[in-house]
Predict the 3D structure of the following.
Amino acid sequence: MGINKIGDKMIKIIKGDITNQETQAIVNAANTTLLGGGGVDGAIHRKAGKELLEECKKLNGCKTGEAKITKGYNLRSEYIIHTPGPVWKGGDKGESKLLENSYRNSFKLAKEYNIKTISFPSISTGVYRFPKELAAKIFKKVALEFQESFETIYMVCFDNQTYDIYKREMEK
Ligand code: APR
């Protein structure tokens, strides 16, 4: 397991289904409507239940790179932080900055809610086709910036390839 420790503050790369995480918050790789979709967004909405969609409807969407928070409903997590990551368009349309914003704004919002344990999926690297290796570098950069403010930060990878890429990046 890829682990980065500063004192007792940990960044852990694990393989699994983020909807099973027991952290205070899990982060959803949403879209700008916040009304659900496929991938991890679909899994989170299925498990959280229809009340999540009711709360999301009141949020009036979310801009790419920004983040909004809801309750976790039927999930073990108290909160879900929804952030639309960027769609990959070749890399020269500010995608890296937008992905960085998604991580940074999610961490900032979690801090505002005094959240100490948080789980992220590999934002934008599925349907939005953001390259996994570059995404891992961006996650690592922002997670290290916020590491002191959290007990444990998890990156929950759904498949082996993603897990290997994030683990390797953390071990550099
Ligand atoms: N737990 C953890 N990770 C998951 C899960 C899960 N249950 N299901 C999928 N993933 C992983 C994918 O394998 C990928 O590595 O989440 C990562 C992000 O992939 P997507 O869910 O496709 O998200 P993204 O690439 O950001 O695209 C977002 O897809 O589902 C729609 O509504 C969503 O329009 C938005 C777009």
In short: The mean pLDDT is 97.
